[in-house]
Amino acid sequence: MSGPWPRRPRFVAGNWKMHKTAPEAAALAREMIALAGGARPRCEVAICPPFPALQAVGEALKGSPFHLGGQNLHPATHGAFTGEVSGAMLAALGCQFVIVGHSERRHGMGEDDALVAQKLRSAQRDGLTPIVCVGETLAEREGERTAEVIVRQTQAAFEGLDQAAALSAIIAYEPVWAIGTGRVATVEQAHEAHQIVRATLDRVVAPGAGARISVLYGGSVNAGNAAALFADDQLDGALVGGAALEAASFWRIIAAAGA
């Protein structure tokens, strides 16, 4: 199963969700930079704080190897969309990445596959790298529908994109049943899901596309299980939730990804 790491960028993103005020978020960002001690991580790292903290975290990250990312965006460039933010707004604050289609938005906010596809394209339109989330619920896994769900979500997001656009995105496989629950997909389960994502991209985008795009794992990743997950040659990094809110834990995950 494991072997030489493929020639794909390794990437770790921290999704802070609805945690931390702007001052608290800036303090956490500075703590992570201090832990790095001037060393450049051997993988790319993005921090995705809540919207009100983006500017403060962006200031704290200046001159560091860490990138700034948003947690969501609206597909439109501007308009009467109360409570929403555009990709251009994120980019103006220094964001380089944005999370698209996280399961908490799919299942909690009613975002469907078509809207996720729109957001992917809008992110790229505004110069952002989308981190596109796919993954099945517990009921879908127990109903042996995992492959069906992953194929549907991946195809809906990437169908119609040219190869260059598709390869400039990042995918995060996040089994919904593992997010914030403490349950983690086994290495075998994650490996199989990543293979399904890659095979779908080969069919939808172009032969060989799946082997060239970075696919992350997300779902209760922590400092204790990261090394075992990253040892698999299908997993290119992680989208980290709760463990990203503690600087030392997040740094250990980053170190594991770069090992």
Please give a structural write-up.
- The protein has 259 residues and is α/β, with parallel strands linked by helices.
- It has one domain (11-257): Aldolase class I (TIM Barrel, Alpha-Beta Barrel), CATH 3.20.20.
- The chain has 11 helices and 8 strands.
- The chain has an 8-stranded parallel beta barrel with strand order 1-2-3-4-5-6-7-8, surrounded by 5 helices.
- The longest helix is centred in the last third of the chain and has 18 residues, at 187-204.
Enter the CATH topology name.
TIM Barrel
Total number of strands: 8
Question: How many domain regions?
Answer: 1
Share of helix, binned: 25-40%
Which structural category do the helix and sheet elements fall into? alpha/beta
- Global mean pLDDT: 94
Spatial arrangement of strands, main beta sheet? 1-2-3-4-5-6-7-8
Reported CATH architecture: Alpha-Beta Barrel
Secondary-structure blueprint:
Blueprint lengths: L10 E5 L6 H15 L7 E5 L5 H8 L4 E5 L16 H6 L4 E4 L2 H4 L6 H13 L3 E6 L3 H5 L3 H13 L4 H5 L2 E4 L13 H18 L10 E4 L7 H5 L6 E4 L6 H11 L2
Parallel strand pairs: 1-2, 1-8, 2-3, 3-4, 4-5, 5-6, 6-7, 7-8
Q: Main attributes?
A:
259 residues, alpha/beta, TIM Barrel, 8-stranded parallel barrel, 8 strands, globular, disordered N terminus
Q: What does this entry show, briefly?
A:
With 259 residues, the chain is an alpha/beta fold.
